[in-house]
Design brief:
By secondary structure, the chain is an all-alpha fold. The protein has one domain. It has 13 helices and no strands. α2 packs across α6, α6 runs antiparallel to α7 and α7 packs antiparallel against α11.
Length: 280
């Protein structure tokens, strides 16, 4: 029997997220194909190829290291500052690149949206998957830095996996939300790079999480902790170079915020999907 797709007027009451997820599973081949395509063409016709995946965190690391060298005061304690900064930049740069690309993933594929019927969330989700490839490539340099500075990996390295899972969960929610809003409000694509720059300094990348707790009032620290990337970056750094478990408060806050955001973003996306082809 031929499958029939019924297009209904946009209403949150008609959104069926479980049915949408079931249908999404039927398009696993498309998700795989588009992800592989993005990986192949991302650095096509460039001389450095995949080296570009590590040049951004390395350049930020160099700038931050020079800054604190000139100031003569490093916030990393006994840990070499280049290693301290780079460990945090590995998940952050993958996250920021995925957010920037996913935000415009629907508008940049407008012709596809108007001609082919498929779950639209596939487009931003493929950029989320590509973020893992960026982390994998950048982590090779992190291993090399650990060897260079004589830092050995301990049992807490296993916490890097939950940290990346939390990043993927939060990243998916942000990607779906921004992609859906960008279809109707093109200002999002312009604003995202600015937001990401501010967001980076609101995340413990160039400084330890403890420094934020000391500098901020309890009220501001409560707002600061609502940023799930605090838990992602701090946990990943603790796991890889500090051989320490995550900070419980940051981890719980990050997990709760991500668990709340993801279903809300998905429902909003499926609600907006019904009219995307009309306004894109």
């Amino acid at each position: 029997m031929r499958q029939v797709t019924v297009f209904e007027p946009p209403s949150f009451a008609t959104v069926r997220p479980l049915a949408a997820l079931k249908r999404l599973g039927q398009f696993s081949h498309l998700i795989t194909a588009l992800t592989v395509h993005r990986l192949k063409v991302r650095y096509a016709r460039t001389h450095l190829g995949w080296a570009w995946a590590v040049l951004q965190p390395l350049s930020f690391m160099a700038v931050f290291t020079l800054m604190f060298t000139l100031l003569g005061r490093s916030p990393s304690g006994d840990v070499p500052y280049p290693l301290f900064a780079y460990a945090a930049l590995v998940p952050w740069t993958a996250f920021s690149a995925a957010v920037a690309n996913a935000a415009t993933s629907l508008t940049s594929h407008a012709s596809l949206l108007t001609k082919v019927a498929f779950p639209r969330e596939i487009l931003p989700v493929t950029f989320v998957i590509v973020a893992l490839a960026d982390v994998a490539v950048a982590s090779l340099i992190l291993v090399g830095l650990c060897v260079w500075y004589g830092v050995s990996l301990g049992a807490n390295i296993l916490w890097a996996v939950p940290a990346l899972m939390l990043m993927m969960m939060f990243l998916t929610g942000v990607a779906l939300l921004l992609a859906a809003v960008q279809v109707r409000h093109r200002d999002v694509g312009v604003a995202v790079p600015i937001i990401l720059q501010v967001w980076m300094f609101a995340t413990p990348i160039i400084y330890p999480l403890e420094a934020a707790g000391t500098a901020l009032s309890p009220a501001l620290m409560g707002l600061y902790a609502l940023n799930p990337m605090v838990a992602v970056v701090d946990t990943f750094r603790r796991a890889t170079i500090l051989d320490a478990p995550p900070e419980p408060g940051a981890w719980v806050n990050g997990l709760i915020c991500s668990l709340v955001l993801l279903p809300i973003a998905y429902v909003y996306f499926k609600h907006s999907e019904k009219t995307m082809a009309d306004v894109v």
